[in-house]
């Protein structure tokens, strides 16, 4: 459940909670299938307390989730040309159940106009994706970029048919290539510009797909939705996008899920489950990758426990391994018994681990929003954040800013938290007040306003 996926999941849930009469008709593309918004929430996101509203899918929709995922995989093994024939002979009711909403079909063969289009009709989509992935790695990026932007690497097997819609919302620029150049007008959510701000901290594939996706979107006169003002300003500067084409709609954290947990037994269970010692601990949570500056956090922690004399505290690093994580692992290995790597933390345990922490340390080199900061603040955790990109905008005066490039500055802020219970309590109260300003329901309502404004401007 990384930041992008959480954004999509929570946005869909919040959109579904808006009464149908107060929002446009929304369909959702999930893998290779199109569903109504309420069907998608019911089938793929499962039961929630809020999922029983009048406009949500019925029980049978929930029960079809596993079956639909199996059909999704099977459909990916069938060439689009054959799939088109199957759709023609399968009864409409069965076609809907197997392939999703009939209103907008995927992999519907169109008049092929490139070599890739012909290939896409004949080969299974999963095989096509594997071949394109191999080419992207094997060929120089300049050549791949030319082939991609010229549509030679965009077979029809990968393109969703958006004709008939007033607007298509792409929730990740890297996936812009799944939509046709000529179809519904585009709205693209921009989460960050890592390929410009810190390309050295990203994989080649991420940098490439983000760059190509944004370049194509700009060229196709897309409108943009940014998750922070910092990202919006960077987008305007980097791509000379007219300010009227990009709107900031801040992300949020689920207040029903993330809240202070004072239960001592819950804290003990978390410590036992993830091998955390009984002493106070500072927490950081992210994918283990260079952009998150985890090696800098460990260096700061070593200064804290050494030069600054705070020996009765440990550091917990939660999250799965990403790319270029060797240095992080080495830094943790230098401090056996003091630095704990928990690996992935289940969503059900996040609230308790945030609440049990003495402080939450999140001093990335760059963030488009910084969702873990907001989650921790919802749980009342005092936070230390990097004084760059969007993080000051999100935290405001509810945390301690630190220079991400200076381990000593990070260590000084750690010391302020560890040494002063009074200061921690004050920051905790500020964090709770600040976090309450960010709500997914407001994010959804503002997103609908962006939809309506975009559609009205194109009418």
Give me the count of strands.
12
CATH architecture of the domain at 264-435: 3-Layer(aba) Sandwich
Strand content is 5-15%
The biggest beta sheet is recorded as: 6 strands, parallel
Instruction: Write the CATH homologous superfamily of the domain at 264-435.
Output: Glycogen Phosphorylase B
CATH class of the domain at 264-435: Alpha Beta
What is the CATH topology assignment of the domain at 264-435? Rossmann fold
Rg estimate, integer Å: 24 Å
- The helicity comes to 40-55%
Report, as a whole number of angstroms, the end-to-end distance.
37 Å
Low-confidence stretches: 47-64, 101-111
- The number of helical runs is 21
- In spatial order, strands of the major sheet run 9-8-7-10-11-12
Provide structural commentary:
With 459 residues, the chain is an alpha/beta fold. Among the domains are: 1-76, no CATH class; 264-435, Rossmann fold (3-Layer(aba) Sandwich), CATH 3.40.50. The chain contains 21 helices and twelve strands. The strands form three sheets. A six-stranded parallel β-sheet has the order 9-8-7-10-11-12, with helices on both faces. The protein has a four-stranded parallel β-sheet with strand order 3-4-5-6, sandwiched between helices. It has a two-stranded antiparallel ribbon with strand order 1-2. Helix 17 links the parallel strand 10 (359-362) and strand 11. Helix 14 (294-305) packs parallel to helix 15, helix 14 (294-305) crosses helix 19 and helix 17 (371-378) packs across helix 20. The protein is globular, with a radius of gyration of 24 Å. The two termini are 37 Å apart. Residues 47-64 and 101-111 have low confidence and may be disordered.
